[in-house]
Amino acid sequence: MAQPETDSTHPGAPAASINSPHPTEQLNTSEKEKAEQKAFSQWRRNLSLITGLGLTPEEFQAEVEKADRKQCELRKEQLIKSSPGVRFMMNNLAKAGCPLAKNMFDCGVCDMTKSGGFSKDHGILLCQNGFFSKKHQEHTMIHEMIHMYDHCVFNVDWSNLRHHACSEVRAASLSGDCTWTREVRRGFYAFTKQHQECVKRRAILSVQANPSCPSRDAAEKAVNAVFESCYNDTRPFEEVQI
């Protein structure tokens, strides 16, 4: 059987008692190494995500979608708790008999032309890859909640272009989607009737995307036919939120 080594200066004394670190020091060293390795792994993962190096296209896309969804969900929770506009609409949906639970907001991947959508059967989709800021997500949530409110209160027939046009006019007008800063970001700005022009333009684009709409001309006619009355209908708000 092997015998323990001894220090030559102190015969019989185990070398470990002189040369080896205390067990607590060994534990601390081990924990420090694990923390450093974890930090390095996270740094390497973040670098790979930023640069795409070391990842297949599929892995890179999966990581991007994971990060987008995490941010969308976090902002959603924050806005439900703290956004006056979001909370106002949730309260008014409840009063109208159509309460909106937070799990009816679903973050998902969309094509880059969209930031959100409303379905009478599934609730509200938030396009996790379509937001450039928390404020943008806030406006989108309010926009889609206005569609939900209209569906609940006014029994909107979404295949009817005038019904759809009216809800799009109201949503674009009341959600903050047509604020001056948003329009400047899009490259549109004017000193007179900027808000009205934005509302009309965006409503036409949305109606044009309706499967029941045969052409842009039909979308324009539908929006023009309802614009004045629907633009002036600010329910449940007291006035336009510019």
From TrEMBL:
Which GO MF terms does the UniProt record name? metal ion binding; metalloendopeptidase activity
Q: Which EC number(s) are documented for this chain?
A: 3.4.24.-
Q: Where is this region: Disordered?
A: 1-40
What membrane topology is annotated for this entry? Peripheral membrane protein
> Which compartments is it annotated to reside in?
Mitochondrion inner membrane
Q: Name the residue ranges with Polar residues bias.
A: 17-29
Instruction: Note the InterPro entries from the entry.
Output: Peptidase_M76_ATP23
Q: Name one GO cellular component term.
A: mitochondrial inner membrane
Class of this enzyme: hydrolase
Pfam families linked to this entry: Peptidase_M76 (PF09768)
PANTHER family the UniProt entry points to: MITOCHONDRIAL INNER MEMBRANE PROTEASE (PTHR21711), MITOCHONDRIAL INNER MEMBRANE PROTEASE ATP23 HOMOLOG (PTHR21711:SF0)
- Describe the task this protein carries out: Has a dual role in the assembly of mitochondrial ATPase.
State the family it belongs to.
Belongs to the peptidase M76 family.
* Protein's recorded name: Mitochondrial inner membrane protease ATP23
